[in-house]
Amino acid sequence: VIPTWAQLGYLAAAVCFIVALKGLSSPRTARRGNLIGAAGAVLAVGIVFLASDLDYLLPIGVALAAGTVIGVLAAYRVRMTQMPQLVALFNGVGGGAAAIVALVELHRIEAVGNAPIVDLIAAAFTIMVGAISFTGSVVTFLKLQEWMTTRPVTFAGYPILYGMGLLAALGFAVVLVWFPSMFLGFLLAVIGAGLGVLLVLPVGGADVPIVISLLNAFTGLTVAASGYVLENPLLLVAGTLVGAAGTLLTKLMAQAMGRSLFATLFGALRGGSTLGGTATSDRSVRSSAPADVAILLAYAQRVIIVPGYGLAVAQAQHTLRQLVDVLLERGTRVDYAIHPVAGRMPGHMNVLLAEAQVPYEQLKEMAEINTDFKQTDVVLVVGANDVVNPAAETSPGAPIYGMPILHANQARQVVFMKRSMRPGFAGIENELLYEPQTTLLFGDAKDTMAKLLAAVKAL
Amino acid sequence: MSDPLVWLTIFVLSVFVGVEVISKVSTTLHTPLMSGANAIHGVILVGAILVAGEADSTGVLALALAAVVLAAINMAGGFVVTDRMLVMFSGRRKRIPAATRPELDA
Known about the structure:
The structure holds two protein chains of two kinds. In chain A, 59% of the residues lie in helices and 7% in strands. Chain A is built from 17 helices and six strands. Chain A has a six-stranded parallel beta sheet with strand order 3-2-1-4-5-6. In chain A, helix 1 runs antiparallel to helix 2 (30-51), helix 5 runs parallel beside helix 7 (182-200) and helix 5 (117-144) runs antiparallel to helix 8 (208-229). Chain A is elongated and about 80 Å long. Chain B contains four helices and no strands. The interface between A and B is large, with 122 and 90 residues.
């Protein structure tokens, strides 16, 4: 039983979390919101130590300190380009923790002999979904880190295997509710782990962030279910908040990609993603030197920059900002066109450019700037590919078909800064590269950008 | 009201609050919001500490402590990385599209 003052403390922490989410949805209050959330979390952990009669305080303290140090170090060390996969990992370990808590609770129930049926259902749910969230997040990590292919992975028997996995999981869950045992719980966790891997495999690289958001909502729901089993109202409220907010956020992200969540998850199974990658590469493209592009830029009236993940990977965003400053001084109008999923996550590019101190007002969202491309002299595409690929509008078979794109193809000149002819994250050929108005500038983005900057300055 | 009904009430109300508070988020903030929400579910740490403190055998204790470590990583790391992202946004915000999401031409 939780004492009254502790209940009130938990209530305060729950309010903190609500205020945190509210704050996080507006740029002005976002940072304060996050800090309030952190304060709520610290409060909750303080209360659980003071209000509960706990054994093993020392080992728990050590484990708590170890986890905190690992988490904080990882969060400080990570480069902003790799931040999406870190968020995926953090989400995965949270799901794993929830699954373990439910397993331990199952062990206690086993010892007591009986428990209300709702408790057992909630425990089974937590174990299964927590395990899905854990392995699913690990696979998204591997995809984003490019330690495995970023293309959708499917195989012939996929739907059958998936269906059988789901049936087996449901079957085990039912048996678990009738005969609660930790061993059955472990088996359920193993099946859940397999389902998690299967869930993420057919998702293509560019869609992976949506899956992270979905798994984030899953983890929230497991925390809510744990709250019910442990009779802790804070866990119920916090978990439900994240589950609900995460589900809505997933929907918003899928909308930004121009398709339903179902199509995002299972679209590859309809055999649409075989396009590209194999053909072409012997077609001719027009490439030129930094000096030529410098002239193009220096005498343009209107320039739009389309930044992509490759820009940030090459750490060229600071040099790019200097180049834009020089162009602005010359009287050129320059804006950045930010695709909703530029980078590896919605909003990721804003974070990456903010890191390079690009003024917020130069960043234009897609809807704001997409009609301007017609009147634009030069579009400079740096390290981006899929977000300007006309295939999204013209080839119904392409994995990115239906995704809204930036209409760079409508500008008078398009300059692509690329390392190589390798296709983008979605793994498909970009027709725009072969268009007559397109010029390619090969090389490492940072290097080439520095040469470009020097050439423009020299004019 | 019976106990399970109280819990159900809390659950349903929380769903509405969760949807309502973030319904006006701008695309710019999708990433930090996801990361912040991710940190909040790290509060499973409270549950992990509770079950660790009531462990009845070494094996169970080890399992529960593993959950404590994982949950602490989730919570501490989540809030710190979110703050790192948001620091970069602060300072220069002339134009604040707080309640705008782009109308997408699909």
